[in-house]
Amino acid sequence: MSIFSRSSFSSAGYAAFRPTYPPALFNRILNYHDANRRSNGVPTGRLLDLGCGHGLVARALAPSFASVVALDPSTGMVEQAKKLTSNPWIEVRQGTAEDLSFLENGSVDCVVAGQAAHWFNFSEAWPELARVVKRGGTLAFWGYKDHVIVGQPQTSAIYDRFVYGQAEPAPGVESLARFWELPGRDILRDSFRSVVPPGTDWQNVVRIAWDPDRVTGDLSDAPEEALWQRKTLKLGELESYVRTFSAFHGWQAAHPERKSQANGGEGDVIDLMFEEVVEAVPAWKTKGDEWRDVEVDVVWGTVVLMAKRR
């Protein structure tokens, strides 16, 4: 998670433009954890949120637990989480999934990781998780990847060329491809298939994964339980989201000469990508400089992995 940990990474921008999660996702995880999780109406148990970022998940799930520990390796993310979190029973601290030595054995009822588990070193994380999660406790990891604009599948090919293409997507411009941190990005794009809870410690494993058809944009095969990351956004908001990619941050560091149009330059790789995206849809092109105000239906591929501690 090195790029997110750099002091130059905008944790505030990440917090502002990353998609949130719907109540349906949290309810599914809580129901798997324990449908009767409240004792006489009072929240019980301890939640551990790994890779907490700006604290979104910790804040959303806090009402269902007696205490929450939110952990992130990035100083900037921890500072942002503390700034946005006023709940007194949420403890935000810096740390990693590979070292939970500050926690006692069997002291965690539920451990979650939203858009973070693909960064873990599981050879070290699995033993720690097995140690701190109590018997009968729950693990839930989830993530989303590679959006599709519903009804405009032609824009997906443009996205793929600029984000993953090995050739120059525009003359003299490098794509984001070599700046993705691996194997993390590949693990997420492969729906956590390589993330296998050890059978000696975990049971009742559930994996729900789905990817939209990037050629047709067809959503007819999407199971309702997997279609949880879908948003109505303005194109300008979608552009701002893409600028939170860790790969784009790496691209900027490698190409300081390519200033964005917003900063008075000729345009960076994201400017050029969205110029092509707008050009591909005549109705958007007619909007001219107001294209960022166009509302679009955006859906992401998703994965949820859950397991119970033996």
Automatic annotation (TrEMBL):
One Pfam family, short name: Methyltransf_11
Signal peptide: none
SUPFAM superfamilies: S-adenosyl-L-methionine-dependent methyltransferases
GO molecular function: S-adenosylmethionine-dependent methyltransferase activity
Ubl conjugation keyword on record: no
Domain Methyltransferase type: 48-141
InterPro entries attached to this UniProt entry: Diverse_substrate_MTase, Methyltransf_11, SAM-dependent_MTases_sf
Transferase as UniProt keyword: yes
Top-rank taxon: Eukaryota
Keywords per UniProt: Methyltransferase, Transferase
Gene Ontology biological process terms in this record: methylation
Family annotation (CDD domains): AdoMet_MTases
PANTHER family xref list: METHYLTRANSF_11 DOMAIN-CONTAINING PROTEIN (PTHR44942), METHYLTRANSFERASE TYPE 11 DOMAIN-CONTAINING PROTEIN (PTHR44942:SF4)
Similarity field: Belongs to the methyltransferase superfamily.
The protein's name in its UniProt record: S-adenosyl-L-methionine-dependent methyltransferase
Organism: Schizothecium vesticola
